[in-house]
Structures are given as C-alpha cells and as structure tokens.
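Apologies for my clumsy wording, but can you show me some protein sequence, whichever is easiest, together with the matching structure tokens, please?
=====
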Amino acid sequence: MTTIRQRRVGKGTEAAEDQPSEETNVKPDGKIPPVPPGGKLWNILSITVGGIVAISLGLLTSVYVATLHENDLWFSNIKEVEREISFRTECGLYYSYYKQMIQAASIQQGLHGLVYDNKTESVRTINILERMNVYQEVFLSILYRILPIQQYLEPVYFYIYTLFGLQAVYVIALYVTSWLLSGTWLSGLLAACWYITNRVDTTRVEFTIPLRENWALPFFAVQIAAITYLLRTHLQPAQEKLTLMAIFIATFLFSLTWQFNQFMMLIQALALFILDCLDMLPTAKVTWLYIIQISGLLLVCVLQFFNSMILGSLLISFNVSVLIARTIQKNLKKGGLLNRLGKLIIHVLLVLCLTLLINKFIKKILNLESDEHIFKFLKAKFGFGATRDFDANLYLCEEAFGLLPLNTFSRLSSTLLFYIYGFVLFLLSVAAVIVAFRNLSGSNQVQLKKKVEEYTVTLKPDAAYSLVHTVLFGCLALSTMRMKYLWTSHMCVFASFGLCSTEVWKLILKCLHLYTSQRTQVIKYSIPIITLLYISFKFWPGIMDELSELREFYDPDTVELMNWIKSNTPNTAVFAGSMQLLAGVKLCTGRTLTNHPHYEDKNLRERTKQIYQIYAKRSPGEVHGILRAFGTDYVILEDSICYERRHSRGCRLRDLLDVANGHIMDGLGENEPDLKPSLYPRFCEEIKKDLPSYTMHFTRVFQNKTFHVYKLAKHK
C-alpha cells in the first residue's frame, strides 16, 4: 500500500516559494476607481498592470503546486520505479504510453505500437489512440524527442512540468474571466487568490498529475473566458471571428484531452439552451456555440479513428435537436406571456424527444454500448430502482462518485468564498428571474423601466451565462464529488465578479436607497481589498508551513513486487489482478495485462468482472479456466482487497462480486432473500492454504506483506 511518511533526513531544500505579489499588487489597484472617460493611456496602463499580475499569479501557482509535489514525495531523490508507482491507478496507465513513445526506436514505430497495441489487453489487439484520450502524451513525447533538452531534463520532469505549467494557464484563464465580468483586474486577483487558498477543493494536480481532467480543465477555463468575451455587446466583426476561433480551439483541445468532455459540454449546452429560451443571450451567438461544440467533437472523433462513443454522445444529439427544433418553431420568441410559455413548453418537449430519438437511432446503427455503464450508474444513483449490476455498483460504492461531503462547505467558508458566493448567487438569481419574466411577458410598461434599470446587471449576457453555468455545475458537484473541481474553480470567478462588479453594488445600494456613484466606487474596491488582506493574513502562514513540510514516498512492498516482476518473469508474461495495480505493472515493467482502469469499453468491463472472480467464491478450476482464457501466466492477489475494510459491508469488492454471482455476502447483516450460499470458499483466502486442489493449478512464486503472486499451470 502506498503511503507518505515524514522524511528521516531533514534536508533544507528550496521549500518556500514566496508569493509577494498577492499583497504587493493590491495597493496599486486602489488608483483604478477614478477612471476618467476617454482616459486611453490609463486604460493601457491598467491592462498592462493587470496582465502582469495575471501572468505572475499563474506562474506562482505553477511553482506552488510543483513544490508541494516535490515536498510530498521527495520526487527528485527517489528511484525511477518509485516515481512511476507514485502515478497511481489510471494515471500510471496514461503515463505508460508517454514512456512507450519515448523509448520507441522511432516516432513512427511508437505510433504503430499505439495503433496496434497487444500489451494493454491480452489476446486482443486494440487501438490506443481510438480507445483513450492520449494524444497529449503522444504530442509531448514527440516534442521531447525533437527538442535539444534530453541532456538537461529527464522525460518524467518534462511531463510533470508541462502539467504544472498548464496550471498557470488555468489560473490566468480564471483571472481573465473574472476581469471580463467585473471590469476590473482586482476581481481577477481575488479569484486567483481564492483558487490558491482553496487548493484542496479546486485542484488535485499535485498528486494525480497525469489524470485527464488536469489536462482538460485549463482548456475548459480558456473556453469559458472566450465565451465570456464573445457575449459582450460591443464586439466588432473581426473581434467576434477571432473570439469564435479561440473558442473552437479551446473546445477542441478540451474534447481531445478528456473522455468525459461530452458530458461537461452537454451541461454547457443546457445552460445556453435555457438562456436562449429565456431570451437572455443573442440567438446568433448561441447558434455558433452549438456548431462549435459539434464540430470540435466531430474533429476529435476523426482523430480517434471514429470513436463510436463520441458519435453516440448525447451532446451531438442534443445540439442537432435544438437546431432542428428552432428551424421548425420560427416564431418562438413572439407573443404574450402565456403564448410564449406554451411555445416554450412545446419547444422543450420537442428538443427532448428529438434528442432521445436521434441518440437511440445512432446507437442502434453503431451498436454502441460503451457508455451504458454510466447510465446504469446514474439510474441507480438517483433512485430509479436498485441494481445488482457489478459495474454500476463499483461506481456507487466509490466515495468520489458519492454526494459532495458537507465539510467541503466549511473549508470554502473559512476563506469567505462560500459566503460571498452564496450572497452573489442569491442576488443574481432573484434578479435573473425578474428579467426572465419581463422577457417572456414582452412588457414595455413605463412603471417597469426603473426596476429594469436597477437589475441591469442580469441583462448582461456574460453575467447571465456565468450564473446558469455555476448553478448547473453546482448541481453536478453536489451529486458527484469527483466533479466538484469544475464548480469550485468557477465559484472563485463568480464570487469575485460579484464582489467587484459596479452593477451588483449599484443594484444593492439602490435597493437600500443609498446609491451614489462615489459610494459605489468606494465599496467596489474597498471590500475586495479588505477580503484580500483577510485571506493573506489568515492563510499566508499556513501556506508557508505547508511549503516547508518535507515528506517522502514510501511503498516498499509495491517496489519489491515491481522489481521481482522485472527480474523473474519473461517480457511476454501476462499478468492478471486489480485494475489499479495492473496499471502500475504496465508502467513499471512493460508486461502484458489482462485488464486496466480505463473502463469505457463493454468488453473490458466484462473481462474485468471475470478476472475479479479471484476475489469471489469460486472453485480453483473455474478461476484457472477464466484466467487462462485471457492468456494469463501470473495472477497477483492483494490482501487489501481480499480482506478489505475500507468500505462497509455491501460495498467491499468481494460483496459486489458475491451479489452479482447470486451468493450471500460475508459477515453479519441482511442479505436479499434470493441470494444463496456458495458451494466454494473465497478463492483469494483458500489458495493460501496450499491445498492440492489449488496447487495443481497455481504455484506461489512471490509473497510479501501485501501481495501474493501465483504462476498458472499451462494444462487445459
């Protein structure tokens, strides 16, 4: 089991990376409030200073997470096998393809090895570029090979520094989005500071470096910044075209680097659809965004050798349905309140029906079943019937796919982020409801004009988009903890925008009958600065302590296992075991696997369930037959799974297998009435007794405190 322990040698490495810009760059912004009309020179100066602050904060964040990673693992001091083991579960699988490309005799041979891969899944040749989102590893490996840096930088450092560098892009994009929404770069500064001080809930890049979301989310943030700029009302045609191009590039890169891109963009498309229906966004720009999403995804589909999961995505079906429905209902935005509400209900139902029909038709034509486990999981998660499906229960029992823990809100509140976010969200939500009602009713009554002026902030398309975006992704985060990083980063943007927005403070002061232009400007800048000072004084000492804490990677049992495999098994040996461990086996030893953690394939899911019978109640002959059917030479059993205590009864892997096999679960507790006792004991426990019925099929060849490796007999 991998652990982190305190370093035995107190080595005074460069632990503290000072970030003085968080405080020193606050005071100069106090000069921003009196912006004179037509002050072109001042605007240039403000943009220059704001840009420098953005880049500085981005670079500081990059250095910050890189330092934390080094201090946590002592990465520069540990052996290569330990570095590779530190890339846990699917992270190790993705990094293995980068390593494979680096070690290939040529770029062409490396690409050929990925397109015709027979080591990731035994007795089967698969196309890695079609199955997985690993173009970033391919690009990075080619870049490393052609750049003259091999003598100065190890491949692993080139890889991790690129990911940490993307964090700079991420923070800059969040900064710019907040700046665009509020009109002042002080808002961007506050958003970046919140992102850093809430790091536990905004990113996990320092300990899951190769994870797909760490590649994709910076591009998603860039896309949101570009959409925010696009939704401004004063753009020239040339500016609009360049912005659309930026959105397309960011959307394409986001889609290329993460397999869950289609689900995130579906939520984004829903946000656009809601706002378009309520007449809060320009229809022409929304249409362009639908088209960009479809074209970006289709381009990725081509690069991934026409991956059927992309073609059968709900996003493409939904966007096409919206465009068709809009063509059918041309007068959707005309008429009185009741007339428009009726048309709107029909429009929503039409889009929903078309989406389901188109999606069903595409999946029928393509015989697509790759994503069925996701819908089974969602069905069970939201209470649409209990399930014994092994794959669905595997997700349901993982903490990452559970509800967002309540302690998340206490952490976010300690930086004032959640309090301010909640206040701004409530204010703009109420105002948005009023404006939506006014848009639908088409009322131009004189008595409403004053109210409309007071709620002008919600009429801004960029603010309206940001509001619906944060609400929908908030719902996603609340339902699935793993997706919180999409919400919390935008929470920083949304809260800082609200705190620094002239329109928001103007609205509040008018409601309180305290509005004056001077008072608005004073509050707009003084409260964010006070908030920044509070964050700095409260969290700066903690950040310094965190940067000075030195620990090291420690997992001797896994290191021993990997070294034994490399030294005592042939290069062609096939290994079976848990998905998480086998990803490390592939990375560290290059041996062939029976299964792996990239779960978006039906055949692989069925194969994994069969391999996992090593932890079920099955006879040795049955288990041997299953393993040999996949060409297995060695099987690795883990005590941490066989005697698992991390999950409660009903969620342990052995329990999921028992239920799926129709067997009664171990331990005290209730069982469903139709479950029956198994005729055989649990395989992973019984094999250790070296009974003749087991030794005729399996021979123990390696053992330590955590792992047991058995060699399979070759007889049929």
Summary: The longest strand covers residues 698-703. The first helix runs from residue 21 to 24. Residues 163-541 form one domain. The chain has a mean pLDDT of 89.
